[in-house]
Amino acid sequence: MAPGPLVALEREVIACRRCPRLVRWREKVAREKVRRFAGEEYWGKPLPGFGDPGARLLLVGLAPAAHGGNRTGRMFTGDESGNWLFRALHRGGFASQAQSTGRDDGLVLSGCYITAACRCAPPLNKLLAAETAACRPFLLREIELLREVRVVVGLGRVGFEAALAAYRDLGRIAFKKKPAFGHCIRHDFETMTLIASFHPSQQNTFTGRLTRVMFDRIFREARRALRERHGN
User: Fold this and answer.
1) What is the pTM of this model?
2) Which helix (H) or strand (E) is 193 found in, with range?
3) What is the rounded CA–CA span in Å between residue 32 and residue 98?
4) For residue 62, how many other CB atoms are within 10 A of its CB?
5) Own/partner pairs, 198-207, CB within 8 angstroms, 24+ separation
6) pLDDT class for 229, splitting at 50, 70, 90?
7) What are phi and psi of 119, to 5 degrees?
8) What is the CATH number of the domain that holds 130?
9) CA-closest candidate to residue 49, choices 143, 173, 161
10) Using one digit for the tens of pLDDT, what is the confidence trace for 167-178?
11) Beta carbons of 158 and 179 less than 8 angstroms apart
């Protein structure tokens, strides 16, 4: 668990009940479960960010999966998207192991922190604009507390645009023309680099739109950007 202010923010996220539709859905899923996880106790609460409080790399996704993060209590954990992500992070040297199965599995992220635009699993993976807006202050506060971050990866268009808007609104970046989204498109600003990535969803990985080689390229590019900004 991260020290100091991040702990207080984590507790606030976990206790949040701002969005009635999301509260109903996440708790319904946690009660009714699915057959393959029927014997497990679901987390069923909002998910805080996870990782190294001194991170220089920040990953921003969309929201937890109903039977992934909503079950395990950790971002990108418990589903195939998470399997893809943590294998790639391990190969890239940002994760101590290639598997992420739950909050107590011993996984440690090094120089990396994972968060999302929304902290609750939404029905049909679709968020309402009001729900995204209600959750946005958590992302803004995380960014303010993660002061060493210099490279941000937006996982999927929603994660990319959430990161872009958050850093702009905090006064960290400025642009006249909206930066484009596309796999491994890199945008360098004065104080940070933003890299766009296709989301490691099954829709992308099963169809070959996102391959292992393509995903590994994201974290090689992140390493390159970090070296350019820090010299190591």
Assistant:
1) 0.95
2) strand 193-197
3) 30
4) 22
5) 198/156, 199/61, 199/62, 199/81, 199/155, 199/156, 199/157, 199/159, 200/80, 200/81, 200/84, 200/85, 200/88, 200/155, 201/81, 201/156, 202/80, 202/81, 205/80, 205/81, 205/84
6) confident
7) -100, -5
8) 3.40.470.10
9) 143
10) 999 999 999 999
11) no
- Vertex 43 angle, CA 131 and 41, to 5°: 145
| H, E, C per residue of 7-58 | HHHHHHHHCCCCCHHHHHHHHHHHHHCCHHHCCCCCCCCCCCCEECCCCCEE
The model's pLDDT over 120-136, given as tens digits with 9 standing for 90+, comes to 999 998 999 999 999 99
Per-residue confidence (pLDDT) for residue 141, from 0 to 100: 97
Helix segments in 146-211, DSSP class H: 156-169, 202-205
CB 94 within 8 A of CB 112: yes
Distance CA 59, CA 65 (A): 16
Distances (CA, A) of 174 to 153, 163, 189, 192: 17, 13, 8, 11
- Mode of pairing for the β-strands spanning 186-188 and 112-116: unpaired
- What's the mean pLDDT in 74-101? 96
Give the containing element (helix H, strand E) for 209: none
Total domains in the chain come to: 1
Identify residue 110 by its one-letter amino acid code.
S
What is the rounded distance in angstroms from the CA atom of residue 164 to the CA atom of residue 179?
A: 8
Structural domain boundaries enclosing 198 = 5-230
Residue the block writes with tokens 């190294």: 52
pLDDT of amino acid 21: 98
Going by C-beta distance under 8 Å and a sequence separation of 6 or more, which residues neighbour residue 46? 13, 14, 16, 26, 119, 120
Over residues 12-29, the mean pLDDT reads 97
